[in-house]
Amino acid sequence: MPKKSLGQNFLKDKNILSKIIDCGDISDSDIVLEIGPGTGNLTEKILEKNPKYLIVVEKDKDLSILLKKKFTNKVEVVNEDILKYFDKINFDLPVKVFGNLPYNISTKILVSFIRTKNLNNRFKKFIFIFQKEVADRILAKENTRNYGRLSILTSWKMNKYKIMDIDAKFFYPKPKVWSSLITLEPKLKFESLNNPKNLEHITNVFFNQRRKMIRKPMKQLFTNFENIATKLDINLDLRPQNLSKEKYLEICKMYEDLSH
Known about the structure:
Blueprint: E1 10-11, H1 14-24, E2 31-35, H2 41-48, E3 53-57, H3 61-71, E4 76-78, H4 82-85, E5 95-100, H5 106-115, H6 119-122, E6 123-131, H7 132-139, H8 149-157, E7 158-166, E8 171-172, E9 179-186, H9 196-207, H10 215-221, H11 225-231, H12 245-259
Parallel strand pairs: 2-3, 2-5, 3-4, 5-6
Antiparallel strand pairs: 1-8, 6-9, 7-9
Helix pairs in contact: 1-2, 5-8, 8-12, 9-12
């Protein structure tokens, strides 16, 4: 039985499972990691593509036992919380990551990947299912209602693509909301920051008051905020959603420079 406490909703539709696999473009030289495989529906499809190595991380002990019986030595099954397993993901080749992510920790999982050092050397591609509302926030462009922290953080290090929305009826148990399948690819070049948490902090300060003018968050972050705004060519009467992702990175760089 799926456990509500673990946010488990298993995808059962074969056509959608096939589409997810197509997004991964798996070859026999690929190392594949699957997060939260559940009963192994997607795992089976991944194995059909004969990856070089497949490792699945499943927090539910009962399901881990089931997966070990089902796939014997074809799959390495790790009974662990993915959030505690991050530092152990270390292979010679960049990894392709699949996941029908548990709703309750999906953003934490994404942010943990974004924080990863040498992201583009360690990971090749992410093929993730998110709750639609979360996917909309990841994919949002500036000047839209959903634009915010998640979009800015993801855009910093990744290129993002929406593949499709998925009706709740294709999951068991049926969730109350739709889901979306998106792919994320690490950028080869991105702005280097001293610490990703600074960007998280800055976007937090701005979007905590998303309807207010940005004068207030700028004042919170910088003592000489008006000079900084002039230097960065920022209009203090704008709202947080009006600033581009690039502008937030400029603010972050300035914040880091002045913090030293």
